């Protein structure tokens, strides 16, 4: 009877965990048979980093052919129960049928969700770009604005949160609104951030570039205040100001999948599971965590993996490799990702690329835009449905850490476009 690696989630972490595990298994054909299964609602890799863009319904790539080519079994379903003591999970399939699936090794890679605090009207009136269905709902709403009579509320969009996602959403909105409402319409895009600075988690280096880009785009920033209530016709701020709007977009804060609570009580402030260098959960030795479910040390200097695809892919590769390695009795690979880079889209004002944990700006404006577009449209997409190609990219040693650094395809692109590496 084969041993089983079960992966919960088919986002960037789950996808690469599956391919990495199968890669190692393929390199050890003489070892005991190991089955790799992925459980998720559908076999599409959602390009979550792109959901702030227009036409989000197209921001996914089917991966069932890749899974089949690599020998991964995909199971359509939603996991809602994990019993670590019994080494099994429970899932519900698309027909509503519940079943239990045993595992020898479990990789929890079920991602994260935007946090909805208990703010009056938030659940009823706010849009988001968190998941595919959220972004599609927002896109349809924005398109519908053209059929409504002009008004201050129709022509105003409030972005609730001035962090990474909020900035990308706000910077993209002027072009989206112009395409929908026309150049002759006056519209406002307003970012509300409770901190005194825009992009508080990005540090001081990128801030002048972000501020200038938003000013050039005529995006307003209301800092040091927060949204305290929402209704069908506007939002109210903690400063007492009321902004009339039909479109409030919530981008403030994320939390790991609630499934982490069924694995261990040792979690960080985001609900992520504390893991060791092998990405194993200490209190559940046969459970690994990856992506947004894992609180993993990225280096020896106190830096931890961010909740982003930049870290999800490498985390998935290491978790998949190590889960299989233990069953195959081969050495594990400790997770390490000391190189960090930020690539922030600034709409028609360009982009900003910074390196290091303190984000030293390396490229900005229109010079940085092709890098962001290349990463968004090419680099993060899955490989072809060919085992040899997929396994090559799934190697945990591939690219070292950040896929935007020392990547041969990206470097060739930069050289061809005259952008210094």
From TrEMBL:
Q: Which residues form the signal peptide?
A: none
Q: Which InterPro entries match?
A: FAD/NAD-bd_sf, FAD/NAD-binding_dom, NDH-2
Residues covered by the FAD/NAD(P)-binding domain: 4-299
**Which Pfam families does this entry report, sorted A to Z?**
Pyr_redox_2
Q: Name one GO molecular function term.
A: NADH dehydrogenase activity
Listed A to Z, the keywords are: FAD, Flavoprotein, NAD, Oxidoreductase
Q: Belongs to which family?
A: Belongs to the NADH dehydrogenase family.
What protein name is recorded for this chain?
FAD/NAD(P)-binding domain-containing protein
Originating species: Xylaria grammica
């Amino acid at each position: 009877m084969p041993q089983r690696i079960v992966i919960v989630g088919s986002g960037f972490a789950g996808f690469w965990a599956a391919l990495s595990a199968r890669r190692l298994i393929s390199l050890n054909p003489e070892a005991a048979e190991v089955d790799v299964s992925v459980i998720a609602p559908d076999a599409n890799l959602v390009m979550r980093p792109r959901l702030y863009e227009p036409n989000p319904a197209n921001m996914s790539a089917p991966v069932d052919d890749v899974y089949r080519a690599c020998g991964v079994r995909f199971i359509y379903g939603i996991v809602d129960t994990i019993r670590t003591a019994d080494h099994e999970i429970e899932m519900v399939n698309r027909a509503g049928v519940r079943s239990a699936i045993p595992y020898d090794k479990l990789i929890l890679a079920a991602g994260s969700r935007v946090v909805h605090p208990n703010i009056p009207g938030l659940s009823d009136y706010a849009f988001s770009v968190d998941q595919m269905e959220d972004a599609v709902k927002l896109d349809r709403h924005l398109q519908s604005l053209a059929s409504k009579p002009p008004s201050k509320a129709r022509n105003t969009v409030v972005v609730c949160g001035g962090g990474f996602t909020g900035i990308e959403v706000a910077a993209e909105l002027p072009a989206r609104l112009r395409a929908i409402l026309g150049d002759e319409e006056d519209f406002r895009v307003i970012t509300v951030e409770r901190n005194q600075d825009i992009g508080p988690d990005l540090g001081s280096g990128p801030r002048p570039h972000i501020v200038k880009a938003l000013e050039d785009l005529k995006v307003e920033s209301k800092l040091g205040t927060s949204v305290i209530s929402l209704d069908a016709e506007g939002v109210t701020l903690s400063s007492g100001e009321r902004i009339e709007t039909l479109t409030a977009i919530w981008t403030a804060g994320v939390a790991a999948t609630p499934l982490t609570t069924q694995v261990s009580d040792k979690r960080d402030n985001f609900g992520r599971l504390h893991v060791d260098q092998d990405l194993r959960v200490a209190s559940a030795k046969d459970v690994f965590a990856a992506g947004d479910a894992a609180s993993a040390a990225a280096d020896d200097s106190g830096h931890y993996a961010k909740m982003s695809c930049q870290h999800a892919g490498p985390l998935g590769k290491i978790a998949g490799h190590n889960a299989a390695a233990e069953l195959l009795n081969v050495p594990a690979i400790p997770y390490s990702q000391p190189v960090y880079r930020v690539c922030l889209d600034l709409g028609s004002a360009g982009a900003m690329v910074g390196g290091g944990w303190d984000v030293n700006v390396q490229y900005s404006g229109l010079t940085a835009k092709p890098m962001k577009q290349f990463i968004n449209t090419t680099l993060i997409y899955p490989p072809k449905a060919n085992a040899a190609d997929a396994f090559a990219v799934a190697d945990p040693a591939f690219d070292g850490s950040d896929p935007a650094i020392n990547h041969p395809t990206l470097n060739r692109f930069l050289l061809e476009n005259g952008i210094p590496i």
